[in-house]
Design a protein that fits this description.
Elements (H helix, E strand, L loop, with lengths): L10 E9 L5 H15 L2 E7 L2 E8 L1 H13 L6 E7 L7 E5 L18 E3 L1 H8 L4 E5 L3 H6 E3 L13 H7 L1 H4 L3 E5 L4 H12 L5 E4 L2 H8 L7 E3 L1 E2 L6 E2 L9 E2 L6 E2 L1 H4 L19 H16 L4
Parallel strand pairs: 2-5, 6-10, 7-9, 9-10
Antiparallel strand pairs: 1-3, 1-4, 2-3, 8-11, 12-13, 14-15
Amino acid sequence: MPFPAPSPATWVVAALYQFRSLEDPAGLRGDLWQLVTRLGLCGTLIVAPEGINGTVAGSRESIDRLHAFLREAGFDRLEYKESASEERPFRRLKVRLKREIVTMGVPVQPLTQVGESLTPAGWNALLDDPGVLVLDTRNRYEVQAGTFRGAVNPELDSFREFPAWVEAHREELAGRRIAMFCTGGIRCEKSTSLLRALGFEDVFHLRGGILRYLEEVPAGQSRSEGECFVFDRRVTVGHGLAPGTAQMCHSCGWPLTSEDTAHPHFEPGVSCHHCFGTTTPAQKAAFRERHRQYRAAGQA
């Protein structure tokens, strides 16, 4: 029997991943689906032959039960972070079986060939070296919400584009100390594996990503600017993983500042100045109706 849905002030949001070779990912997916459905969680978990990845939310008891299940299933080195949300952060629950837990489309070996992992304190020390190339491995709409000072933005629409970007910039990257980061650590860890496979030696990544950094580093010592985009209804978080100030355009997914929402092309649930010219009147009408339904159901 499912647990009762948590009250609005009790949502615990758990972001987790671990690269680990799985002999029966389909079996694990089935077991997880049964468990998280019974626990009344929401969010997404991805299972693949290379491990597990996802962000889910639920009551304190439900999240603890999931965490215990994963440890018992052999995930003893989870990159695991918790934060809180005053409202239900995800509309649905999904447990997916995929080829990769984060899709890059190029085979790499993050279990055996990966760059040096740095704590937030070690990351700050590295960033103080002016010769270091800091590389944001996230998508362009995530970078919009905030990034590290001086970081290179590859202008990616998808993580699948990262290998091609590296190939196009190999001469610029050659011989450099390269520090890479992402939201929770998984994409930058896989990115360092790619660079090591290509022969780059001096490669680093931020352990636990920006989320771990914002959790541990006081604002006065921070090298980050803005907020961190998260893939739930909070849109962004700040230092201490407190809910951020951005809104999301539910048409294109871009995080929006107060200046963005004051733009004449902004309509909640329908459009913003990033996407207003890319959708037809019929599509806007459909988005408008979807938003009306979400509001009627208390989900907007």
